[in-house]
Amino acid sequence: MKITFIGGGNMAGAMIGGLVRQGFPADQLHVVDPELIKREQLVTQYKVTASAPEEDLPVSDVVIFAVKPQQLRQVAQAALPRLGNALVVSIAAGVRAETISRWLGGYSRIVRVMPNTPALVQAGISGVYATAGVSSEDRAATETILTSIGKVVWLKEESEMDGITAISGSGPAYVFYFIESLQAAARAQGFAPEVARELAYETVAGAMKLAAQSEDDVATLRVKVTSKGGTTERAINAMENSQVRATIIAATQAAAARSRELGDELGRDSEL
Q: Domain for residue 113, yes or no?
């Protein structure tokens, strides 16, 4: 299976690295990127092949559009004459399959993917939607690529991509925001910056490891930590009184709404 990445940024690099570590032959991976430095880095690190956009696109089984949403229309239309019968995989946030198909002259073998940044350490989770023209073999090829960077959730409806974007796509930023806040709280208690960082990082990492390995759900684990009349109960009550849970839910709803707006905006642009 020959895979071509159009765009050699962080996510493409994560996928390439994950595939190579899993034993995928590097000579079957190709990268197209306008920046010579990026091409040289990927060639040196992973022994893949690379080319500039103006060069001929190699015949491929899978073409992955790993570019920014605003760049996708131009990139897709430039790739169309050389696309052949490849499976098209897009990781451009917000750009709907119908829009990509229109840019590709009605192309029907399209998979949309919303990965997240933990993919950079092979700990990501990707929401995936396939159009009707995607075969079971295409799905298997997509699985091979995406499981190299983490786990995969297949979606029945493309509209679910907005929720995926809000929860797992943007989700790492919410976790980082909480860690920032926990560090700030530790500093407010008088701890030195390096101690505050260690306390915050290890507490979050340890809690996540416990949650992942426990038979209890997170609500039960929280209750087990929260003794009646104790310090944790006082803290949880303060969060509830400040409507932290409701704020998180509202934040994800805002993210999903923005994802829908971006899809609408990019879809309108495609008709111009």
A: yes
Closest CA to 3 of 72, 66, 53, 67: 66
Contact criterion met (CB below 8 Å) for 112 and 94: no
Q: Are 119 and 143 within 8 A, CB to CB?
A: no
218 shares its domain with 153: no
**10-residue averages of pLDDT along the chain (272 residues):** 96 96 96 96 97 91 95 93 93 94 94 97 97 96 96 97 96 98 98 98 98 97 96 97 97 95 81 52
- Residue 10 tokens read as 């962080």
Following DSSP, what letter does each residue of 119-171 receive, concatenated? GGGT-EEEEEEE-TT--HHHHHHHHHHHTTSEEEEE-SSTTHHHHHIIIIISH
pTM reported for the whole predicted model: 0.91
* Full residue range of the structural domain in which residue 107 is found: 3-161
How far is Cα 154 from Cα 79, in angstroms, rounded to an integer? 26
